[in-house]
Amino acid sequence: MRRHLVTALCLTLLAPAAFAQKAPKDVSELVARLDSSSASERASAARSIGYQKDAALPAVPRLLELLAGDRENEVRVSAAEALGNIGPKCAKTAVPALMKAAKEDKWPKVRSASLSALGEMREAAKPAIPLLRESLRDPDGFIAQAARNALFRVQPDARDEVVAIEDATRPKQKGSLFDDLTQLQAVLPGRAPEVYELAIYPGFALATTACAEAGSGRCQLKYEGGAVTGPTDGSADDCEKKIALAKVDFSVVPGLVKQAPALLGAPGGAVTMVQLSAGVFCKSHGWIVSVKDGGMVQFKLNGKVDKVTKF
User: Greatest CA separation found in the chain?
Assistant: First the structure.
């Protein structure tokens, strides 16, 4: 009994300190952190401000400045998300700014976050309905989905129509890219003249290319069904070798896909990915064909076998 009383007393004494640790930080302190030289600090502060709801209203002008002009993509994303979390009470100034970002920002993730934030404004975002409907047709699936979810909130009586518009305009890959890369070859070099790497899957492809807007200096573009979307952040890599896609003969790929399983002693094996890469040692670009449960075969750019690696 004595032990239980001591425990209860300790918890009572500790409660104020525990509550203080959980209490939300003062908004003015968070606003001061929005001027930090650290992008991660600015982004973190913006997100925290959004959680303060009505108490965050004095911070709205500074969030709008970040959304419109911060040089770091993630900070602009966090500013849009914060405005959405604050909600309809900041709609008068936030809706026009979010519409501008959703339409004009160079980074798709910012546009997507801005569309989602417009949805959180509910009926106050009715001026954005034409933009939201236009965004349903965006080939970027994340943007189209954000627009759809926002419209469900702003214009709930049009749910069936909204879904139909998005579904009808999604890029669709007809057939496997392993069989025919003609359309990719015609479209992708216009967005990514040079790549560090190109990963090709049956239904889409991901190109890693140089990108000044990304923190790592690299970004990824996605090709699917004749459309190129992105960029999204790409991971940094030691290999600096790039290759001009215009110089690549994509017509060899179907033959490589057919050869690789047999070369690995698994003639019925399924090819999971074809990669245009400079390899682990960054010597020169070539093709790497991966076969499920079989291994991988490295080919030179002209299609000649370079190395067979069984798993």
Answer: 83
pTM reported for the whole predicted model = 0.83
For the ranges 2-11, 128-137, 155-164, the maximum mean pLDDT occurs at 128-137
Position 25 confidence tier, pLDDT thresholds 50, 70, 90: low
- For residues 69 and 82, the answer to whether their CB atoms sit within 8 Å is no
Q: What's the fold here for domain 2-169?
A: Leucine-rich Repeat Variant (1.25.10)
What does the buried/exposed string (b/e) look like for 43-81 if buried means 16 or more CB atoms within 10 Å of the residue's CB?
bbbbbbbbebeeebeebbebbbebbeebebbbbbbbbbb
How crowded is the C-beta side of 60, counted as CA atoms within 13 Å? 22
Q: Is 29 helix (H, G, I), strand (E, B) or coil?
A: helix
What is the tens place of the pLDDT at every residue in 218-243? Answer: 999 999 999 999 999 887 777 899 99
Q: Name residue, tokens 């239904």.
A: 203
The domain spans of the chain are 2-169, 182-310
